[in-house]
Amino acid sequence: MKLPYILSILNVVLATAAIDVGGDGGDGDEAVLVKVVTQVVERHLFGCHLVLASTSSHSSVFTKIIRVAEWASLWAWPEARVVGVGRHEGVDALLLHHALRNTRHALYLVLHTHATQGSTAKGVVEVWRRCSYCWAGEPGVEALGRWDAVEGELPGHTSLFRERPEDYNGHLFRIVEKNYFPYSSWVKVTQEPGTVVILKDALGTRMVNALASNLNFTYIAREPVDNQWGLEDEDGNWTGIVGTLQREEADFSLDLTVTPKRIDVIQFTRTYIDESVVLLSSKPRPLPEYLSLIRPFEWEVWMGVGASVVVWGVAVWLLQRLWPMALGGRTFTLDSAIFYGWGIMVEDPPETPPANLTGQLLVGWWLAACLVVASSYRSSLISHLVVQGKSPVINTAEQLLGREGWGWGTPRMTGALKVVLSSSPDVAMQKLYTGMQAKSIDEGMRLVLGGGFAFIYSTYYAKILVATRYTERTGYTPVHISTSQYDLFFGNSFGMRPGAPYLHRFSLAMQHVMEAGLVRFWMDDVIAKHVREYRREQDLNEEKAVRDKDITIPERDTSQVVLGLNHLQGAFMILALGHGLGCVFFVIEFFLRRRY
């Protein structure tokens, strides 16, 4: 019975002391009861969807009504309003019953139907209310007052149902949390699974401390027994943090990614920060130096230059063959014309230009075109010889998949990342999921530095990891963090056990924290503080943490660059290639001439 608003009017009768609503007063007492209930409904329970009423004096009514409440999952609707009517002995029995453990609005009306000496007058109604955290943070009952239901009306100014509590009176909340810096951080008290943990400085710790100070509650934190975030098994039960909350073994978690399936079994506050992953890869590697001679131009330009030399040579050859036919004079062979154009291109033209005006005009325009091409090539060549070219960076999943021979991995394929990759309609995400490897952080980053491997991890943790363990004092790092970030569903929030009556109040307090800009400020400050402390520890130990992990970060050479054999290896390779081709053609010509 999933109704957004449930009202149960319960006539509670205890086995030890039953109420006789039809006693001496007969129909009059029943009329008083109807009047009391009517006033409560009209003034405080307007818009109700369901009323369960009973005037039976049998003790089984209480049990049946409680069974109905449990069957209807009343515990899952903390805003449902419950009213019970009965003797004074039933106040605690109803208001503190386990079925109403999450109910925030529960009343109990004690109707005195008999007037006896020394007791309350007949027709007087006592009103009791359940308070979830009024007794040192524990559930209790409190008296709201009484009124004469026969002669008078229910006071209009009386607020029978408490508004949302601002104070939890030191209530001890149970927190379940994984160690996932910078979102959360803790140290274990013991090494036993599910042990109590002590929270350290992190975003979640600052959030819960701010809420605890504002709402006046305390907390105790534990790690999940299986140390998992939470995945659904074949039976519909959940593991990890989600399963702990589902079984109501904890009250809330500080950091949990909101997913559609998790929403079905637990509740969430409003999201307070995004959760995304990035691709960590090695920074672009230097390209081979022998390619420096061709890198100044794109391949399209090189093809255009080669085609232009051939076309120009053919044009000059045709014109010089037509010219002697009309006026006489010397002519060019086709190979000589092409080599003539190539000589001008490399700024070594032949000494005898064409004698006719047409040839000279072609040579002149070709000289102008070659001047532009040669000047552009020369200026670009110098920069490519001094500064090595780099391979393209990896910023997207598509670029990663397009790299032949590359692999990728993540610490563990659990939680929201697995759900996102396995359920994504994106082909790239599905391929990432298929080829994903489980690697520890140290092993994964060692593969990243070696090249040919990408490590997929949380955005904020990746920034901390690179800043602390893989960055020089000068600020240089060989690790590239992708500019593309892949969100994991709706973001992160506090996970709550089902039916948590404090959900709305926590969400409202978190909204105030977000509007004040504290979430981003705290996250940046937590990261910056961690990096400072890490580097300070490095200074005290007089060694870098990367050396402890047997990881060597290459130092950048910032000295003046002097061109050496390594820079000009392309020129010597071209020279060697030319000599080789010359020898090959010599052999071919030698055998052809001897044969013919």
Characteristics of this structure?
single chain, 596 residues, alpha/beta, D-Maltodextrin-Binding Protein, domain 2, six-stranded mixed sheet, five-stranded mixed sheet, 18 helices, 41% helix, elongated, disordered N terminus
Task: Summarize the structure in words.
- The structure is a single chain.
- The chain is an alpha/beta fold and 596 residues long.
- The protein is built from 18 helices and 18 strands.
- The strands form 4 sheets. Strands 12, 13, 14, 15, 16 and 17 form a 6-stranded mixed sheet that branches. A 5-stranded mixed sheet has the order 1-2-3-4-5, with helices on both faces.
Structural class by SSE content: alpha/beta
- The count of DSSP E runs of length 2 or more, i.e. the number of strands, is 18
What's the pLDDT, averaged over the residues?
77
Biggest sheet, open or closed, and with what strands and sense? 6 strands, mixed
Which blocks of ≥5 consecutive residues have pLDDT under 50?
A: 1-26, 49-58
Cα Rg: 41 Å
Distance between the termini: 103 Å
Give the strand content: 15-25%
Question: What overall geometry do the principal axes of the alpha carbons give?
Answer: elongated
Enumerate how many helices there are, as a single number.
Answer: 18
The number of domains is 5
Helix content percent band:
40-55%
Structure at a glance:
The protein has 596 residues and is of the alpha/beta class. It is 41% helix and 17% strand. It has 18 helices and 18 strands.
List the helices and strands and how they pair.
Layout: E1 7-12, H1 27-44, H2 60-71, E2 81-86, H3 90-95, E3 105-111, E4 124-135, E5 138-148, E6 171-176, E7 186-188, E8 196-199, H4 203-215, E9 217-222, H5 240-246, E10 252-257, H6 260-263, E11 267-268, E12 276-282, H7 299-327, H8 334-345, H9 357-386, H10 397-401, E13 407-410, H11 415-423, H12 427-434, E14 436-438, H13 441-450, E15 453-458, H14 459-469, E16 479-481, E17 486-487, E18 492-496, H15 503-515, H16 518-541, H17 545-548, H18 569-595
Parallel strand pairs: 1-2, 2-3, 6-9, 13-14, 13-15
Antiparallel strand pairs: 3-4, 4-5, 7-8, 8-9, 10-18, 11-18, 12-15, 12-16, 12-17
Helix pairs in contact: 7-8, 7-9, 11-12, 14-16
